[in-house]
Amino acid sequence: MKLIVGISGGSGAIYGIALLEALKRLGVETHLVVSSMGEYVVKHECEIELSELIGMASFYYDNMDLAAAISSGSFKTDGMVIIPCSMKTLSSVANGFSDNLLSRAADVIIKERRKLVIVARETPLSSIHLENMLKLSKIGVTIMPPSPGFYNNPQSISDIVSGIVGRVIDQFGIENEIAKRWS
């Protein structure tokens, strides 16, 4: 399995970090691209430098490198996750505005009809945000705001994050025991 992981500037960098760590444990090849605000939020919220984040991925691409492998449909992947996804990135993807590698890679995933999961991080949502999400949903993109379930009685922030990350991984049919399951 080969997945692109995009981290943009929405709050919730902890989800992107936890996803990279989980995919590494599961033996999934990851191709990481991080927006400039994504880098800022990772450092601000999690005190993790870009170099450490890069070490969590199999491959890393600079967000301004529009000639990177993941910018081409001929580069085969099983899909992409943008986690967290800012409303700016969501808008770029929804409107085909591929001005950086993160939005270009998502555009390629869409045109190649591969799986794209967007963990949209904003609240409250404006009509513009909702329209962009609906536009993407109508073409098969999975929109997953990180709204935790509490039926599994999470005891920590880590439990809440694991619940979301496990559900994201489920979208790609990857067997995992990251999230507590309903039984």
Q: Ranges with pLDDT <50 over ≥5 residues?
A: none
Q: How many strands, what sense, and barrel or not for the largest sheet?
A: 6 strands, parallel
Order of helices and strands: EHEHHEEHHEHEH
- What would you call the shape? globular
Question: How are the strands ordered across the major sheet?
Answer: 3-2-1-4-5-6
Beta percentage is: 15-25%
Tally of helical runs: 7
**Count of distinct strands:** 6
Overall number of structural domains: 1
Q: Predict the CATH topology.
A: Rossmann fold
What is the CA-based Rg, rounded?
Answer: 15 Å
The CATH superfamily label reads: Flavin prenyltransferase-like
Helices and strands in order:
Layout: E1 2-7, H1 13-25, E2 29-34, H2 36-46, H3 50-55, E3 59-61, E4 79-85, H4 87-94, H5 101-111, E5 115-120, H6 127-138, E6 142-143, H7 157-170
Parallel strand pairs: 1-2, 1-4, 2-3, 4-5, 5-6
Explained architecture:
With 183 residues, the chain is an alpha/beta fold. It has one domain (2-170): Rossmann fold (3-Layer(aba) Sandwich). Helices cover 41% and strands 16% of the residues. The protein is built from seven helices and six strands. It has helices at residues 13-25, 36-46, 50-55, 87-94, 101-111, 127-138, 157-170, and strands spanning 2-7, 29-34, 59-61, 79-85, 115-120, 142-143. Strand 1 (2-7), helix 1 and strand 2 (29-34) form a beta-alpha-beta unit. 42% of the residues are buried.
